[in-house]
Amino acid sequence: MADNYDEYSKDQLVRLLRERDRRPHFGLVWERDEIDHDLSVNNDFVALDWDAELSCGDGPQQNLIIEGDNFDALRTLRMTHAGRVKCIYIDPPYNTGNRDFIYNDRFVDKDDNYRHSKWLEFMFRRLELAKELLTKDGVIFVSIDDNEVFHLGLLMEQVFESSNFLACIAWEKRYTRSNNAKLFYSLKDSIIVFRASPALVTLKETRTAKADSNYANPDGDPNGAWMTTSYVNPATKAMRPNLVYSVSNPQGKEIHHPTHAWKYAKSEYEQHKADNRLYWGQNGTATYPRLKLYLEDAKPMVPIDLWHYKETGTSDEGGNELKEIFGKAVFDNPKPTRLIERILRIATNPGDIILDFFAGSGTTAQAVMNLNKEDDGNRRFILVSSTEATNDAPDKNLCRDVCAERVRRVITGYHNKKDEAVPALGGGFAYLRCRRIPAATVFRSIQHAQIWTALQLTHEVALSPYQSALPMQTAQGKRGLVIYLPKISDTVLDVLQTAIANVSQAVVYSWQPALLAQRLTDARLAFEPIPAFLVNRFSARSGAKGGRP
Known about the structure:
By secondary structure, the protein is an alpha/beta fold. Helices cover 30% and strands 21% of the residues. It folds into three domains: 297 residues, 3-Layer(aba) Sandwich (Rossmann fold); 86 residues, no CATH class; 100 residues, no CATH class. The strands form seven sheets. Strands 1-21-2-18-17-3-6-8-7-16 form a ten-stranded mixed sheet, sandwiched between helices. Strands 22-23-24-25 form a four-stranded mixed sheet, with helices on both faces. Helix 2 packs across helix 16 and helix 3 runs parallel beside helix 4.
């Protein structure tokens, strides 16, 4: 029975709360108050600058490569892509202590007392944002090794809720044993999978030749190859009396099962019999029938959580793929393309958006393009990668020199190590760079090009660069014409009137929306203030103002 708290004194209530705070709670706790504040976490607005020279392909771009801290990138993507990403795959730093994880511009080594807490705080902040980007039926796959796999699982339960856990996949990353390990030698990594919400999530794998080999057609059935399943119900007759009836064997004898019911209603049995789907053994003398299941009706397979290297590649394969593209090793331990392709086959459809905010060498983009070529799909990728510049290597730019360059070569074609031409996959991407703008200076510092980029992404428009010579920027969004007016004049208003002459709906973004509303009394037009519209969306949390336009 609950206590009557109304009768407690203040001192009693304080004492009770302190006792509760001292009790251990089930779940993950890390020293958030003891570690240095994550310097990536700030109140700055994040704009995106288009770099035309580093972009690839002609025409408007649907694919994005974003250079910058992924916390910054995720915040601006929350402004533009909330609820639109179907699948996230990330391969974050594994926090091995061997200079693979940077926190506040310093490598975290094995001797750091707060090594795990820093990694958890770093991941927690990013996973919180990532969740907001997923569609209701979206899924996230996170690669990890044994250093943090248990912590990551609990962390993802905290962010996505335990009811949304789907799998912990064991990926066989290598197949040769080493005797250098002191105890166990690891042949696998883990891939933890969560869904965004309990909404219907369909995860299916393409049927394999091995699975189809279970079907045959020994009796020349005109419906093609088949296999059989039992007709006997695990339930007893007493449990399912509605499924108790006699069936006729090929010799015309009426058959009852002595203890169990049948799996199907009598009407279904009559249809199975009429369709010649009952199998009574090779000579027609089996005790009970079985039901034919035809290959042409076979459904995709439910994914399994054990992925062998023969089907999904190895770490060595990922490295060799990069060497084929660059002619040398340019990145440590890249994932093989086949691994990401398998994830995308399971979790995406041809028109979906895929996000990788630890993009590394760009494997995810190549996997997306390979799969689009395979099924003529239109999947789009968003990659986020930092430069990984340090005091020792201030000019390093992983995003520009490895990630984007790999994707560019795959798009345009390249020559491998044998000097053989590898055909171009085609396509393109916009290369964007994160730029922090202090919240207090956004209204005077944000550039027209940054505004137009954000508006196009927000309205799900393929990205085109800002044209400074034009009096206004226009694009056709899914819900009407999108217009940005940097300045207002009589000439601009005349151009605007012409642009909206034949549209059913348009939203006009302007620095002077009240003035426009006075000058243009048109029910088809909606007016939004710039940059306030973007600032409000950027700062809004889930469920707050700043929803999709």
